[in-house]
Write a structure and sequence with these properties.
By secondary structure, the protein is of the alpha/beta class. It contains twelve helices and 16 strands. Strands 1, 2, 3, 4, 5, 6, 7, 8 and 9 form a nine-stranded mixed sheet that branches. It has a four-stranded antiparallel sheet with strand order 13-12-15-16. A hairpin with a 4-residue loop joins strand 15 and strand 16. The model is unreliable at about 390-405 (pLDDT under 50).
Length: about 500
């Protein structure tokens, strides 16, 4: 185990997350194996997002939150078919990894009714020893995967989204044959809708690329796979001899991978499987005002057909301190999801200074009308404010930076052209050298502009602070002037003066 496990219980951010996400927070298994590729992948993503000392916390939050999100998807299918986890006699988590999902599953079912299977023997060992489940080490070849028992519920999450066509059918056939008579098989895939627009799906409905997040598996055997619904249905029909029923839940896993449900018996129609996605959202702005109130602004949206956001909740150290609803338009959100129904997704709120400090843990979550909730942000107030303010300042000079990048790219192209011309013929050497010097001058100029832009960024921030101070000063002057006027009007002299002017008006001798 790496040291990352030693202080997980004491980490205030993780404590707040598990309090929100785990069914039994006190019994939740926090430890993560040092070889867990899903955690390492989350850590690399957190580093790409920016930051330094908070990278680990963001990676941990992402890791646990995805495990919970997978559990929520599986739970809806299990509730539809079995009426709850308590009615599932046996569960196989195939291609289980190091337990990102299983640690949530053991809070729903007894560990002795759960089997995990993975090609990494160390992953199986970690889960059997730490989570207390049964383990089966998998193989690289489907024909060598020989199991002498069947299972009532099988999950293969993010496995068929990685294997090539030559093993896709064989592995699906293996897992299908491991089902009990009344069992269900769930597996996820990359749907063809995830393909970039410039890439065309082959006629057979499957496209494989030798690229994946795994740093140890052969990418020719474990890459990235995209499939059409027609392809999946044909393969299921083939391996089941036309016996199985199959249902597709579009982007059922984390609103990304399609989730397919296969069963030989339909106790209930698939139309009764009312699957709901989690709401989504983001905290765009987090900043302390001059009066030290915490201002938050962002968006929250629900993509379900009849879904809506009931409310956005803000918690400080686990205690609810503020709630609000989306009330203003966010065209960027509606365009991204291609859904005008979520146009009114913008929200904001203030937290009074006496309710929050920079060291507190802040949790912001959105709740939809189906009762599903999703944490938009959970971290220390100091970390959130620092990150969002930096994003805001960087955004204010976005166009200038784009201009500099364009100039740099043009200079690079000019330099490459100069290099090519340098090799064409000797008589043009002097002319090419001159152009090369001009190109280098352009590069220096572009770098200078970049430095000037960064300086302007600091200047803009200072001007903003000065303007805020001026506004405060003007407000104070206005209040003092108003107080002087009120004092004058309430004085004895002012009342005598007003009475004298009333007499003059009655006598008709009042002036302008």
């Amino acid at each position: 185990m790496r040291n990352l496990n030693l202080d997980l219980v004491k980490n205030p951010v993780i404590k707040a997350l598990i309090r929100e996400q785990a069914k039994l927070p006190e019994d939740f298994k926090l430890n993560i194996c040092e070889d867990d590729e899903m955690y390492l992948f989350s850590l690399s993503n957190a580093k790409e997002d920016g930051g330094d000392e908070d990278d680990r916390d963001r990676a941990l939050v992402r890791y646990y939150a995805i495990g919970r999100r997978i559990r929520d998807a599986v739970q809806q299918v299990v509730d539809w078919h079995f009426g709850g986890f308590e009615n599932v006699p046996s569960f196989l988590d195939f291609a289980c990894g190091y337990g990102r999902f299983t640690r949530f599953l053991i809070q729903e079912m007894p560990p002795e009714q759960i089997w995990v299977s993975d090609i990494y023997a160390n992953a199986v060992k970690f889960q059997t020893e730490y989570l207390g489940v049964n383990g089966i080490v998998s193989t690289g070849k489907p024909e060598e995967y020989l199991i002498d028992r069947k299972f009532d519920c099988i999950l293969a999450n993010s496995f068929f989204s990685h294997i090539p066509e030559r093993t896709f059918t064989s592995w699906l056939h293996n897992l299908y044959n491991l089902l009990t008579e009344n069992g269900i098989l769930m597996f996820s895939v990359h749907g063809d809708c995830l393909l970039p627009a410039h890439i065309e799906m082959p006629a057979n409905g499957i496209l494989f690329s030798a690229e994946s997040e795994s740093q140890s598996l052969d990418k020719e055997e474990y890459g990235t796979t995209y499939v059409t619904e027609k392809f999946v249905r044909e393969i299921v029909g083939k391996v089941s001899g036309g016996k199985a029923f199959v249902h597709r839940i579009k982007k059922g896993i984390c609103r990304f991978q399609d989730l397919y449900v296969v069963t030989n018996k339909l106790a209930r129609d698939f139309s009764e499987l009312n699957f709901s996605h989690h709401p989504g959202g983001y905290v765009d702005v987090a900043a302390f005002t001059n009066k030290q109130n915490l201002y938050l602004e962002g968006w929250a949206a629900d993509v379900n057909p009849d879904g809506r956001i009931e409310e956005v909740q803000v918690l400080v150290n686990g205690e609810l301190v503020q709630r609000c609803e989306p009330f203003y338009d966010r065209r960027d959100v509606a365009d991204y999801f291609k859904k005008d129904a979520i146009l009114q997704s913008g929200w904001n709120c203030y937290l009074p200074k006496n309710t929050v400090t920079p060291e507190d843990v802040l949790t912001v979550k959105a709740i939809n009308n189906c009762g599903w909730e999703w944490i938009l942000e959970i971290c220390s107030v100091k970390s959130l404010v620092g990150q969002r303010q930096s994003q805001s300042l960087l955004g204010s000079t976005h166009e200038k930076l784009k201009l500099v990048e364009t100039q740099l790219e043009a200079a690079k192209i000019a330099w490459e052209i100069s290099q090519s011309k340098l090799m064409i013929t000797e008589p043009k050497l002097e002319e090419t050298q001159t152009k090369l010097e001009e190109t280098q001058t352009q590069l220096v100029s572009a770098h200078t502009q970049l430095e000037q832009t960064q300086t302007q960024l600091v200047s803009v921030q200072m001007q903003l602070e000065q303007t805020e101070n001026q506004l405060i000063h003007l407000k104070q002057e206005l209040e003092r002037s108003q107080n002087r006027v009120l004092a004058m009007e309430s004085s004895k002299f002012w009342k005598l003066r007003s009475g004298w002017f009333q007499v003059k008006r009655l006598l008709g001798v009042a002036g302008e």
